[in-house]
Write a sequence for this structure.
C-alpha cells in the first residue's frame, strides 16, 4: 500500500509511452525502401523526391468528410502503387502547414499531395519542398503561383455551379423570388460560385434575388441567416447556397418556417446533401469529385517520379457532376459511380 | 505548534518515514520528470521513425518549438502572477498583419497624400509596440478596473483578432519580401537560418535566457513570485503590484508580437487567422513545465522543456504517421498526466517539509 503512489507514478509514464506505441505501431510497420532515383535532377529541374518511398498527404482536418474522402482516396491509391503513406492535417493553419512540409522534407518524402491552407501562404512551403527536390501536387485548391507545384488539380467550380444553377432555374419554373447564401468572402471559391450562379439565373428577367447574405460556409450561420430572410420574405421560392453545409442549414430553416416546395441548391456533393435530395427537401448539388482528383494527383506523382514528367498541364480542371433526385443514388461519400 | 494532519498527509508521512533513501531518489525523478519524458520521447521516436534521428530534424524541432515556446515564456510570467493571457494567439495574427501591411502597402498619410515605407527595423519596432499596447490594455483592465484576467484577455483576444481581419478585410498580405527601391527588404531573413540554425530558435534561446535570469536573479522576478504567492502580503511589504502586473502583461504581448513577426517571416505571407488557439499550446507548455495555475510557482527552464515535449510529440507523431485525432488525444493525456504528477510532487514536498519540522522539534 505504501508503495502505491510510487507505482502509480511509474505506471503513468509507462502508460503514456504505451499509448504512443499503440498509435504509432501499425502505421509505420513498413520501412522505407530505397530511393526512386538518385538526386541529379537539379539541372533539368526534374524533382526526384527526397529519397524515401513515402508520400505525404496534407489536407485540412479529417473531421470534414470531404477532406477525409480525398485523403483516404489519395492514401489508398498511393498504397496500391507501392508507396508508404503519411496522412496529416494542417487544420487550415498556414503555419502548421509549413511545419508539416518541413517534417515531410526532413522525412525525405518522395512527393507531397496537398489540399492547401491558403493561396498565398502556401507558396513558400511548396517552394521549400521544391528546393529540397520534393515535388508537390496540389488538389482541390490552387495557389497563387505557377511553376512551383508540379500539378494543381481542382474541381471546376465555375462549370459545376453553372450546371446546378440550370437545375435551380428549371425547378423554379423560370420565375419567382430567391435568396443567396454566400461562402466566406475572402475565399476565391465563394466569388467564383456566386458569379457562375448569377451568370445563369440573371438571364431570366422574372427571377428576382431579394436577399444576399454571407454565412461563412457554416451550417448554423446559414440556418440563422435563412430564418431571418424567410421571416421578412415568406414568399421566397428558392435559396442558392455556396456549399452544401449552408444548404443543409437553409433546408432546416425552411422546414422550421413550415414552407414547402422551396428550391435549394448547394455545391460539394456531401452525403448530407444527398440525403436531403433523396428526401426531396433539397433540389440539387454540384459534386466535386474529391476522390477522383486525389487519385489523379497520386497517379501523376507516381508518373512524375518515374518518368520525370506528368505529360499534362500544371493546372487541371475536373468537371463537377450535377446531382439531382434522378442520379443521387449513384453518389456516396463524394464518389460517383455510374 | 499544532500540526494539522489530513488523511492524505498521514499516509504520505508513513511512506516517507519508512525509507528515506529511496524517497529522495523518487523525488529526484519527479523533479526531472519532464526532462525524462522528453528524453524517453526522443528515444522512442528515433526508434520508430527511421528519419527522425538527425541534426536536421532537431533543428526543425527547435524552429517549430520556438513559436509557442516564446509565447509560453510570456505566459509563464503571467501565470506565475496568478493570471492568464488568452490574447496571445490573436496578437500573433495582429502583429503579422501590422508588419505585413507596413511592408506591402506602407502607411498612407492622406493629409499629405504620400505613402511612407519604413525600413525593416522600424517595422519590427512598431509591431512590437502594437504587442506592447495590447499587453498594456490587458494590464490596465485587470489592475485598474478589477476585471478577471480570464475575461479581460478573452476580450482583447476578440478585439485583436478583429483588427487583424479588418486590416486587410480578411485577405492575406502575400508580398512581404519587400522592395529594394523602397529599402525595406530583409524581413524574411527572420524566417531563415544563420549558420544552419533557424533564426526563430536563436530568438527563443536569447529570450529564454534573459527571461530566466530576470525571473530568478532580480528583484522584479522576486516581485512576480510574491504576487502569485500572496498578493496581499506582497502589497503590504511594498511591492508595486499593479505596476508589476502591467509590465508582465506587456511582456507577454511583446512575446506574442515577436512570434507574429517570425511566423509571417517564415511563411513569407501574413495571414490574419494565424495564431488561432496557440494560446492553448503556450498554456500547455507552461503547465507541463511545472508552472502552477494557482500562481507563485514556475520556471522558464521548465517551460522550455514543456514546449519541447509538445513539439516532439507533434513532430514525432506526424513523422510516424499517427492520425490527427490520436494526436489530440495523446496531447490531452500528456497534459493531464503532467499535472497529476505535479500535484503528487507538491504533496510529497509538503510532507518532507513537515517531516523535517517534526524532526527538529523532536531534537529540541
Amino acid at each position: 500500500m505504501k508503495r502505491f503512489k510510487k507505482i502509480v507514478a511509474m505506471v503513468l509514464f509507462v502508460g503514456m509511452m504505451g499509448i504512443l506505441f499503440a498509435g504509432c505501431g501499425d502505421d509505420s510497420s513498413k520501412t522505407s525502401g530505397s530511393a526512386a532515383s538518385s538526386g541529379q535532377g537539379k539541372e533539368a529541374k526534374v524533382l526526384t523526391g527526397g529519397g524515401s518511398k513515402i508520400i505525404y498527404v496534407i489536407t485540412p482536418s479529417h473531421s470534414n468528410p470531404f477532406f477525409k474522402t480525398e485523403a483516404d482516396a489519395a492514401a489508398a491509391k498511393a498504397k496500391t502503387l507501392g508507396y508508404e503513406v503519411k496522412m496529416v492535417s494542417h487544420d487550415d493553419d498556414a503555419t502548421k502547414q509549413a511545419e508539416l512540409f518541413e517534417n515531410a522534407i526532413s522525412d525525405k518524402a518522395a512527393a507531397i499531395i496537398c489540399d492547401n491552407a491558403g493561396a498565398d501562404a502556401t507558396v513558400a512551403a511548396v517552394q521549400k519542398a521544391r528546393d529540397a527536390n520534393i515535388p508537390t501536387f496540389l488538389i482541390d485548391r490552387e495557389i497563387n503561383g505557377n511553376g512551383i507545384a508540379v500539378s494543381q488539380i481542382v474541381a471546376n467550380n465555375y462549370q459545376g455551379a453553372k450546371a446546378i444553377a440550370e437545375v435551380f432555374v428549371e425547378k423554379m419554373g423560370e420565375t419567382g423570388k430567391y435568396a443567396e447564401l454566400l461562402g466566406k468572402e475572402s475565399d476565391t471559391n465563394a466569388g467564383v460560385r456566386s458569379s457562375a450562379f448569377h451568370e445563369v439565373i440573371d438571364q431570366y428577367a422574372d427571377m428576382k434575388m431579394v436577399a444576399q447574405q454571407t454565412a461563412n460556409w457554416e451550417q448554423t450561420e446559414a440556418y440563422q441567416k435563412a430564418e431571418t430572410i424567410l421571416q421578412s420574405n415568406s414568399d421566397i421560392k428558392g435559396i442558392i447556397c455556396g456549399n452544401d453545409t449552408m444548404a443543409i442549414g437553409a433546408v432546416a430553416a425552411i422546414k422550421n418556417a413550415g414552407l414547402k416546395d422551396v428550391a435549394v441548391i448547394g455545391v460539394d456533393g456531401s452525403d448530407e446533401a444527398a440525403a436531403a435530395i433523396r428526401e426531396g427537401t433539397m433540389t440539387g448539388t454540384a459534386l466535386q469529385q474529391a476522390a477522383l482528383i486525389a487519385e489523379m494527383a497520386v497517379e501523376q506523382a507516381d508518373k512524375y517520379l518515374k518518368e520525370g514528367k506528368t505529360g499534362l498541364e500544371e493546372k487541371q480542371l475536373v468537371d463537377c457532376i450535377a446531382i439531382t433526385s434522378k442520379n443521387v443514388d449513384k453518389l456516396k461519400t463524394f464518389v460517383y459511380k455510374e | 505548534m499544532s500540526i494539522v494532519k489530513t488523511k492524505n498527509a498521514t499516509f504520505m508521512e508513513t511512506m516517507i518515514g519508512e525509507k528515506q533513501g529511496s524517497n529522495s531518489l523518487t523525488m529526484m525523478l519527479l523533479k526531472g520528470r519532464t526532462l525524462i519524458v522528453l528524453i524517453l520521447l526522443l528515444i522512442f521516436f528515433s526508434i520508430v521513425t527511421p528519419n527522425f534521428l538527425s541534426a536536421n530534424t532537431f533543428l526543425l524541432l527547435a524552429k517549430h518549438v520556438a513559436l509557442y515556446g516564446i509565447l509560453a515564456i510570456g505566459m509563464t510570467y503571467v501565470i506565475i502572477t496568478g493570471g492568464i493571457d488568452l490574447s496571445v494567439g490573436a496578437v500573433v495574427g495582429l502583429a503579422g498583419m501590422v508588419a505585413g501591411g507596413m511592408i506591402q502597402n506602407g502607411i498612407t498619410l492622406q493629409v499629405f497624400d504620400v505613402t511612407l515605407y519604413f525600413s525593416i527595423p522600424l517595422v519590427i519596432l512598431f509591431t512590437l509596440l502594437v504587442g506592447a499596447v495590447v499587453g498594456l490594455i490587458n494590464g490596465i483592465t485587470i489592475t485598474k478596473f478589477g476585471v478577471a484576467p480570464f475575461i479581460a484577455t478573452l476580450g482583447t483576444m476578440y478585439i485583436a483578432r478583429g483588427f487583424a481581419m479588418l486590416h486587410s478585410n480578411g485577405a492575406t498580405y502575400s508580398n512581404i519580401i519587400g522592395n529594394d527601391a523602397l529599402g525595406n527588404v530583409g524581413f524574411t531573413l527572420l524566417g531563415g537560418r544563420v549558420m544552419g540554425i533557424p533564426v526563430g530558435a536563436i530568438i527563443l534561446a536569447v529570450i529564454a535566457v534573459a527571461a530566466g535570469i530576470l525571473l530568478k536573479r532580480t528583484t522584479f522576478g522576486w516581485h512576480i513570485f510574491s504576487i502569485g504567492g500572496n498578493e496581499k502580503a506582497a502589497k503590504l511589504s511594498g511591492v508595486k503590484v499593479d505596476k508589476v502586473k502591467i509590465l508582465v502583461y506587456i511582456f507577454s504581448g511583446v512575446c506574442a508580437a515577436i512570434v507574429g513577426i517570425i511566423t509571417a517571416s517564415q511563411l513569407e505571407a501574413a495571414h490574419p487567422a494565424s495564431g488561432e488557439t496557440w494560446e492553448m499550446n503556450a498554456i500547455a507548455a507552461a503547465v507541463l513545465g511545472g508552472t502552477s495555475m494557482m500562481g507563485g510557482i514556475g520556471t522558464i527552464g521548465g517551460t522550455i522543456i514543456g514546449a519541447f515535449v509538445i513539439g516532439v510529440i507533434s513532430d514525432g507523431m506526424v513523422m510516424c504517421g499517427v492520425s490527427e485525432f490520436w494526436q489530440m488525444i495523446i496531447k490531452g493525456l500528456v497534459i493531464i498526466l503532467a499535472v497529476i504528477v505535479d500535484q503528487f510532487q507538491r504533496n510529497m514536498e509538503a510532507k518532507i517539509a513537515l517531516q523535517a519540522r517534526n524532526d527538529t522539534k523532536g531534537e529540541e
Remarks:
- The domain at 34-149+290-318 of chain A is CATH 3.40.50.2300 (Rossmann fold).
- Chain A touches chain B through 52 residues (CB under 8 Å).
- Chain A has a mean pLDDT of 86.
